[in-house]
Amino acid sequence: MTAPSTPSALSARLTESRPYALALFRFVTGLLFACHGAATLFGVLGGAGGTGATAPVGSWPGWYAAVIQLVGGVLVALGLFTRTAAFVASGSMAYAYFVMHQPEALWPMQNGGEASAMFCWAFLLLIFTGPGAAALDGLLAGRRTQSDARPEEQRATAAAA
């Protein structure tokens, strides 16, 4: 494989790779988000807040946030219902930032809300860009298209007979 010789060739190669880079971004973001949820729900990976503890079942907002993180993170990582899952995840992180962190101080570096802010914006991006390549959403869309085409094919076959 040779290196592109001109800036426009590099730009073209990067543009061709965009869906795959977006898929990698989606997968890593979803995986990290799911890890936060698993830590809070099951005490793995250091547990809730790094204490090894779990959130009590049904406690507001920690347990519900962890469920959204685990389920939403898995859905986003797989690329399944990506835009809907990203919408819910982004909203939950906006809530976390403005209700839990922002009252402590204005800037995320001061109030410990960097992860909430970054996840919020990352999921907002996925709402608009979609899942990229290698997403289960694409497989489902392909099946829907095939099943939508089948009744027309059946009618055409019946009319020809």
Structure description:
The protein has 161 residues and is mostly helical. 73% of the residues lie in helices and 0% in strands. It has six helices and no strands. The protein has helices at 7-42, 62-78, 82-101, 108-111, 114-129, 136-160. The model has no long low-confidence stretch (mean pLDDT 87).
Backbone shape: globular
DSSP strand count: 0
- Helical content stands at over 70%
One letter per element, helices H and strands E, the order comes to HHHHHH
What would you say about this model in short?
With 161 residues, this protein is mainly α. Helix content is 73%, strand content 0%.
Map the helices and strands.
Elements: H1 7-42, H2 62-78, H3 82-101, H4 108-111, H5 114-129, H6 136-160
Helix pairs in contact: 1-2, 1-5, 2-3, 3-5
Features:
mainly alpha; 73% helix; 161 residues
